[in-house]
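Sequence in, structure out. Go.
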Amino acid sequence: MRAGKGEGEREARGAAIPIVSIVGRSGSGKTTLLERLIPELRDRGVRVATIKHDAHGFEIDRVGKDTWRHRHAGATVAILSSGRLVATFQDVTEDLTLEMLRGRFVRDVDLILAEGYRREDHPKIEVYRAALGPGLLCGAADRLLAVVADAPVETEAPCFGHEDVKAIADLIETEVLG
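Output:
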């Protein structure tokens, strides 16, 4: 746990766990950036949670399995627990916001890195690959914290290469975690 950045101190100040959204076109390298950024932040003592948005919907529970049967019998929430992992299954009627997800499910971390959620009002790091289309998805009003790009882009935000993970982690520590 980061010294001075624990959950108790944050709650005492009334501050919520900060969120940074990693955004970009499909295939731009968002997940790869997260795979590199998470261990870098962890090695610095930052406890990270991730939230991934799936615009297409998904079903992770399997037909006929016990938790599926519990849900289809009418359980509002079904939880699967082992000595290694916990999974919560809950049907929802709308996309939950990052704030809703943070409030319901995230505890004991210093930072939430979200993959997607471009339209929500949180700092964003856009991952850009020139071959996927011209220009950035985020505009000036989108709280763009940084751009990770394989080619020059027109932006006021700091720009990094895809391999500049340490510098990106430095920026998150300075600008988001303070």
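Check: The longest helix spans residues 30-43. The longest strand covers residues 19-24.
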